[in-house]
Amino acid sequence: MKLLLIDDHPLFRDGLSMLITYRLSLPGGALQVLQAGDLTQAAAVLAEHPDVGLALLDLSLPPDCHGVRTLERWRAMAPDIPVVVLSGDDRPDTIISAIDAGASGFIPKTVQAGVMQEALSRVLAGGVYLPPLPAMYAMHDADDWDDDLDDDLPRNAMGLSARQMDVLRLLVEGKANKEICRQLNLSESTVKTHLGAIFRKLKVNTRTQAVVAVAKAGMNLKA
């Protein structure tokens, strides 16, 4: 599997690349970490390596990429590649905004090395990592939220069908309904039906809440 690490600090890139290469692994084979200092370099790397499977993206890329706008530009450039945000800004508003914009997870740069390793391991295993969020932010865009979510969701598929897991996997990757339809060869009405069932089982009302629920449950979404 190829990962693309996009960050403007070479020392951080080198250190994280070493952590990923030498401390983390996947059952299916070795990990190859590619690097880019900005989105222009990232585009050049993708042209040479179209089989990149995951991007790790800093939200602040000088001179003109800052905040969620950076993520939006990446998603426009590479809509089919799941992306996890790496950022020194770990305010809850920033985290929720990143998930709203299609990030599959959020790893603060402020975490300890051991937490970083755990977070990357979870992401590479098909899960989602988010730092703890105050309850008021977990209720983002919701009329109702189950306060017992942490206790209610087991670390498994919760009875979701194989097709519902496929839909959930693509939802977590930030895919829109039409993209899910195309990739799974399903009608839009069928996708909406699956999403409704997924939301009920996760006890959520929105896509953002679904990503938060997956992170809290420690679910593995690998096919």
From TrEMBL:
CDD domains xrefs: LuxR_C_like, REC_NarL-like
Record keywords, A-Z: DNA-binding, Phosphoprotein
GO BP annotations, alphabetical order: phosphorelay signal transduction system; regulation of DNA-templated transcription
Domain HTH luxR-type, residue spans: 153-218
Name of the molecule in the record: DNA-binding response regulator
Species annotation: Aquabacterium olei
Residue ranges annotated for the Response regulatory domain, each copy included: 2-124
Residue numbers carrying 4-aspartylphosphate: 58
Gene Ontology molecular function, alphabetical: DNA binding
UniProt cross-references to Pfam families, sorted A to Z: GerE, Response_reg
Organism superkingdom: Bacteria
